[in-house]
From TrEMBL:
Keywords: 4Fe-4S, Iron, Iron-sulfur, Lyase, Magnesium, Metal-binding, Queuosine biosynthesis, S-adenosyl-L-methionine. The lineage of its organism: Bacteria, Pseudomonadati, Pseudomonadota, Alphaproteobacteria, Sphingomonadales. [4Fe-4S] cluster binds at residues 31, 46, 49. Substrate binds at residues 12-14, 27, 90. PROSITE patterns: RADICAL_SAM. This is 7-carboxy-7-deazaguanine synthase. Mg(2+) binds at residue 51. It comes from Sphingomonas aerophila.
Length: 210
């Protein structure tokens, strides 16, 4: 199978429990909750996306004709060293494209694989670190994993129900938009009221990382 990748780059994981870790990011093109076109944003299921995932024209992006071509690009981005290799599959929605061939090839090259997914598709069982970020108005079928990362505020979620899902870590990530300061305060209030949750800050934005 061929894979459509918007961009592929080495950075530090900015969010969640693994924040600060060196990682190659593979941003797959396309999402099932928004077309990515601004004209469609207001009618999309997911309306607050901070990411351009349309096309294959970003740095390191392109069409990769098979898994070995994609993994070669991931290895090249990682650089020298076979230990502690770490890759994050994101997008867009990575579960539209992440398949056995990619998971097997990345594991074969010694990578620990994390994913950032909206949870509307079952996550590949071979993935080592599953981060699910649910979106109001979608049906979340992947209700287990390593971290549940809820962008906040988001109307339409019952936190008692989310707390019953099977995740090792629960994080609240303030919505980044023109009212971010208000959302940060709301997120802090939520964590102060509900100790099962922790705050996730998008540190790459603060640090000027990609
Ligand atoms: C761009 S998404 C790609 C992965 C997948 N489609 C998803 O939504 O989880 C990566 C992460 O950014 C979060 N995110 C997107 N837009 C955001 C925003 N405006 N503020 C804070 N987090 C945001 C998502 O919820 C998700 O956790
Ligand atoms: N540095 C960095 N960390 C991230 N964590 C999740 C990201 C994403 O867009 O999925 C992201 C991203 O785009 N950059
Ligand atoms: S589900 Fe993820 S990639 Fe898709 S529009 Fe929402 S935040 Fe963006
Ligand atoms: Mg991002």
């Amino acid at each position: 199978m061929a894979y459509a990748v918007k961009e592929l780059f080495l950075t530090l994981q900015g969010e969640g429990v693994n924040a600060g870790a060196r990682a190659v990011f593979v941003r797959f093109a396309g999402c099932n909750l928004w077309s990515g076109r601004e004209a469609d944003r207001a009618s999309a299921i997911c309306r607050f996306c901070d990411t351009d995932f349309v096309g294959m024209d970003g740095g390191g992006g392109g069409r990769f004709n098979d898994a070995s071509a994609l993994i070669a690009a991931v290895e090249e981005a990682w650089g020298p060293g076979l230990k502690d290799r770490f890759v994050v599959l994101t997008g867009g929605e990575p579960m539209l494209q992440a398949d056995d061939a990619i998971v097997d090839a990345l594991h074969g090259a010694g990578f620990r694989i994390a994913i950032e997914s909206n949870g509307t598709l079952p996550v590949h069982p071979g993935i080592d670190w599953v981060c699910i970020s649910p979106k109001a108005g979608s049906t979340v079928v992947q209700q287990s994993g390593d971290e549940l990362k809820l962008v906040w505020p988001q109307a339409g979620f019952d936190l008692d129900i989310l707390e019953s899902w099977d995740f090792s870590h629960r994080l609240i990530q303030p919505l980044d938009d023109p009212w971010a300061a208000d959302h940060q305060r709301a997120a802090i209030e939520l964590v102060l009221a509900r100790p099962q949750w922790r705050l996730s800050i998008q540190t790459h934005k603060l640090l000027g990382l990609r």
